[in-house]
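2024-03-11 09:14:02 DEBUG pipeline.ingest accepted 1 chain
2024-03-11 09:14:02 DEBUG pipeline.ingest length=205
2024-03-11 09:14:03 DEBUG pipeline.predict start
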Amino acid sequence: MFCCCAVEPGPTENFGGIEERLRDAGFVKTSPAMDGGPAPMLASLGEDEESDGKIFEAKFTGTPENHGLVMDTSDPLCIIVKMVQEDKGAAEWNKTVAPSQRIQDYDRVVEVNSVNNPTKMVKAVQVDEIRSIKFERPAQRTVTLKRPGEIGVVLHYRKVDSSAPWFQKISPGLLQQWNVDHPEETVAVHDRIISVNGKTGTPEE
């Protein structure tokens, strides 16, 4: 069962006409996009960059303000990079390493200062002195859903600092059927949406 009590509750949108009785039906068990647990998905990568679960480590000194990583902590079980600020520690790190080691938007934080407890990682990326962060590169999925029919998802995000909405729940509907029909391209709880019909924007858009 998913728990989001470690962060300030944000708006939850119910898409696809899901009835209230489905809210208590529990999560749908699907294959995650990456082997390391809950992970963001649909993050765009350059042609020369590796994907699909690659884990790499970046070294830093100083506080979060110094390393210049803006984090999306709206899903405490899946902290991701929202933005890499220019002229700060993370941007300088990216200039010195191979493309596969560069920190990008939507990379997932899997460990901070050798700690992988979600609650402690949220605190660490916000206020603590950072020595090292391990990241996991997201996999990308393109899902085609055709109406009529209910999509069958509950999305969660925060208006202020979310980079992309994430799946809080998947219920019977078009997306669940996609997972049945495409076992190698499944969508899971905690995955993120970065574009719809080829268009990107804010989580609300």
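2024-03-11 09:14:41 DEBUG pipeline.report The chain is about 15% helix and 20% strand.
2024-03-11 09:14:41 DEBUG pipeline.predict end
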